[in-house]
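hiii so um. not sure if this is the right channel but i have a protein structure encoded as tokens and i wanna go backwards to a sequence. like what aa goes where. can anyone help
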């Protein structure tokens, strides 16, 4: 229905989307690429990495917003690639490198946003807190066996109280969706085997696709 369509302008190009769609979705539908690190089409957007920032003008007000969580509004004007936006993205990726300097996904993002030198000291963390594993477990599997613990730099993904989960079904969706490719069920559950609702299972990693699976 026409009333459900919203017209916006992205990088000078007239774009149309359905009410409720995000700026990121409409941009991608029109061939405009915006970098993302915590977005997955199968998951509810979380807006946690901020690498997808764009400049959004509505009326007289211009703001820098995460495109993956910003719904389109009639008459919106969006700029995805200004110097200001590139600078914000470089800062975002610099901070991610400060936490996880060795992750390929972050190194690739640094290359993409043109970050050559990190002004921050870097550490060798293996999780950049995108939350995809947590959302996948809750939204796709419908279980919610993992979540975030602690705050700030001490945040980590764990099973509740860091003990064996009594609800995990051992499907490995969390490990498979992790863009860092460092998430392992062993790490989250602090052991190679765990008790699942199907009984005690061992965890294996496929040597071809590198995804996890469980077996007796
Ligand atoms: S373990 Fe992987 S999927 Fe989960 S929050 Fe960390 S980087 Fe993201
Ligand atoms: S992709 Fe939008 S905040 Fe991460």
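sure thing!! here u go:
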């Amino acid at each position: 229905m026409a009333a459900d369509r919203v017209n916006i302008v992205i990088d000078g190009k007239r774009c149309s989307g359905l009410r409720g769609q995000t700026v990121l979705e409409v941009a991608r539908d029109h061939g405009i690429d915006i970098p993302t690190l915590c977005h997955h089409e199968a998951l509810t957007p979380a807006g946690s990495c901020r690498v997808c920032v764009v400049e959004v003008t509505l009326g007289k007000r211009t703001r820098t917003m995460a495109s993956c969580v910003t719904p389109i509004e009639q008459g919106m004007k969006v700029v995805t690639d200004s110097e200001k936006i590139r600078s914000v993205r470089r800062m975002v990726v610099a901070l991610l490198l400060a936490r996880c300097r060795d992750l390929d996904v972050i190194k690739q993002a640094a290359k993409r946003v043109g970050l050559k030198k990190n002004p921050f000291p870097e550490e060798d963390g293996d999780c950049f807190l995108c939350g995809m594993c947590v959302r996948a477990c809750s939204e796709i599997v419908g279980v919610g066996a993992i979540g975030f613990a602690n705050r700030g730099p001490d945040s980590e993904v764990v099973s509740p109280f860091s003990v064996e989960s009594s609800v995990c079904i051992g499907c490995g969706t969390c490990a498979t969706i992790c863009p860092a490719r460092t998430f392992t069920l062993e790490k989250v559950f602090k052991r190679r085997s765990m008790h699942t609702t199907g009984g005690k299972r061992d965890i294996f990693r496929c040597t071809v696709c590198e995804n996890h699976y469980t077996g007796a």
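oh and The domain at 2-81 is CATH 3.10.20.740 (Ubiquitin-like (UB roll)).
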